[in-house]
Design a protein that fits this description.
Number of strands: 4
Strand content: under 5%
Strand order of the largest sheet: 1-4
Helix content: over 70%
C-alpha cells in the first residue's frame, strides 16, 4: 500500500507538501513571536475581532450577490461592487434630510428602517437594470463577451456616480443611537459594529429562508442545477434571473448602508475595492455556494483584522496593517492551491448533467 502510494507521487505533490509545511512554519513562527512580545492587550484583541466580524459581515453580504448570480448564470457580475456603491449613496441622500429634520435623533429605529429600505430598493433597481440592458443580450454569447460587458457595466456605473455626485468623499450623518460602546461580559465593542453585524446576520437569515422555503427560492435552485430541466418543469428562467439580480442588489444596498454606518463616508470609487473583496470572499468559500459565501466573508474579515497583529508583528515588520490586504489575498491563494473549489464548494469532478 505504501509502496503504491509512493509510486503515484509526482513532483507537484511533493512541492505542495513542501509548500504546506513552509506556510505552517511561517504562520507558527509569526504567531509565536507576536504572542511572546505581548504588545496587545485583551482589549485590543477584542477590538480586532469585533472589527473583523464587522468587515466580514459586509464582505459576506457582497459575496452573496456574486455567488447567487454565478450559481444561476455562471457569470461573474463585476458590476456588483458598483451596485453596493449606489446603495451607499442612496442611504446617504436619505440620511441627510432625516438627520437635518431631527427624525434620525427622535425616531432612530424608523430612520434606520427608511434608510435601509431606500438603499435596498435603489440598489435592487440598478441591479435589475444592469441585467436587462447589459447582461441579457449577451447571456447566450460565447467567449469573453459577458465578462467584458460586466467590466464595462462596472466602469459605467462608477463614472456615472462620479459625474452625478462628484469626486469628493461625503460624510455620512451621525446616528446618535449608534454612538458609544456595548459591553458584553468583559468585552466592550462599538455600538455601530454590533448593530452592523446583527443586521447583516438577519439579512443573511432572510436570504436563506427565501432560498430554502419559498417557491421562487426552489425555482432558483432548480435553474442553478439544470436550466433545461427547469424549463421543462414550467419554470421561467428569465423571471428567476431578474429575481436573483433584484435580491442580490438589495443585499448589496444593505451592505452599502452598513459600510457607511461603520466608516462614516461615501465616495464614488468605494465599490471597486469592496467588490474585489466580496468576490474574493465568494471564491474563498466556494463560489455558487451560499453558506460558503457567508463563511468566506467572515474569514476574510477576521484575517484582515487580526492577521497583521497576529502574524506580521512577530517578524518585526513596520506598519503591518498596511499589509492586511496581502494576508487576505495570500489566504485566498492558499485555499485555491490546496482546495480549488473553495472551502464549501463542490468538487470539480462533480459536474451538472
Amino acid at each position: 500500500m505504501l509502496r503504491d502510494w509512493l509510486r503515484r507521487l509526482t513532483w507537484v505533490d511533493l512541492f505542495l507538501v513542501a509548500l504546506r509545511i513552509a506556510v505552517l512554519l511561517l504562520v507558527s513562527t509569526g504567531a509565536w513571536g507576536s504572542l511572546r512580545e505581548a504588545r496587545y492587550s485583551a482589549e485590543h484583541w477584542t477590538y480586532f475581532v469585533g472589527f473583523g466580524l464587522t468587515m466580514g459581515a459586509i464582505y459576506a453580504l457582497l459575496a452573496l450577490g456574486f455567488t447567487m448570480v454565478y450559481g444561476i448564470l455562471r457569470l461573474v457580475n463585476f458590476a456588483h461592487g458598483e451596485v453596493f456603491m449606489v446603495g451607499a449613496f442612496a442611504a446617504y441622500f436619505t440620511a441627510v434630510p432625516l438627520s437635518s429634520s431631527g427624525l434620525a435623533a427622535g425616531m432612530p429605529l424608523l430612520a434606520a428602517a427608511v434608510m435601509l429600505a431606500c438603499a435596498m430598493a435603489v440598489a435592487a433597481g440598478v441591479a435589475v437594470g444592469v441585467e436587462r440592458i447589459a447582461y441579457r443580450p449577451f447571456r447566450r454569447a460565447g467567449g469573453y463577451a459577458p465578462l467584458i460587458t460586466a467590466i464595462g457595466a462596472s466602469f459605467f456605473l462608477q463614472y456615472s456616480a462620479r459625474g452625478m455626485f462628484g469626486p469628493r468623499s461625503r460624510a455620512f450623518p451621525e446616528i446618535a443611537m449608534l454612538n458609544g460602546q456595548v459591553t458584553i461580559g468583559a468585552m466592550s465593542l462599538p455600538r455601530a459594529q454590533v448593530a452592523v453585524v446583527l443586521a447583516a446576520v438577519l439579512v443573511m437569515a432572510g436570504l436563506w429562508l427565501i432560498v430554502v422555503r419559498t417557491r421562487m427560492g426552489k425555482a432558483m435552485r432548480a435553474v442553478s442545477e439544470d436550466q433545461h430541466a427547469a424549463i421543462l418543469m414550467g419554470i421561467d428562467p428569465d423571471r428567476v434571473v431578474v429575481f436573483t439580480f433584484a435580491v442580490g442588489g438589495a443585499i448589496a444596498g444593505a451592505a452599502g448602508l452598513f459600510y457607511a454606518l461603520t466608516f462614516k463616508q461615501v465616495v464614488f470609487y468605494m465599490g471597486f475595492f469592496l467588490g474585489v473583496k466580496g468576490f474574493a470572499a465568494a471564491v474563498l468559500g466556494g463560489i455558487g455556494n451560499i453558506p460558503g459565501a457567508m463563511l468566506g466573508g467572515f474569514l476574510l474579515g477576521l484575517a484582515e483584522s487580526t492577521g497583521p497583529a497576529l502574524f506580521l508583528e512577530g517578524f518585526g515588520i513596520d506598519s503591518p496593517y498596511q499589509l492586511r490586504d496581502v494576508i487576505a489575498y495570500a489566504m485566498l491563494v492558499m485555499v485555491l492551491v490546496f482546495r480549488p473549489q473553495g472551502l464549501l464548494g463542490e468538487r470539480l469532478a462533480v459536474k451538472r448533467a
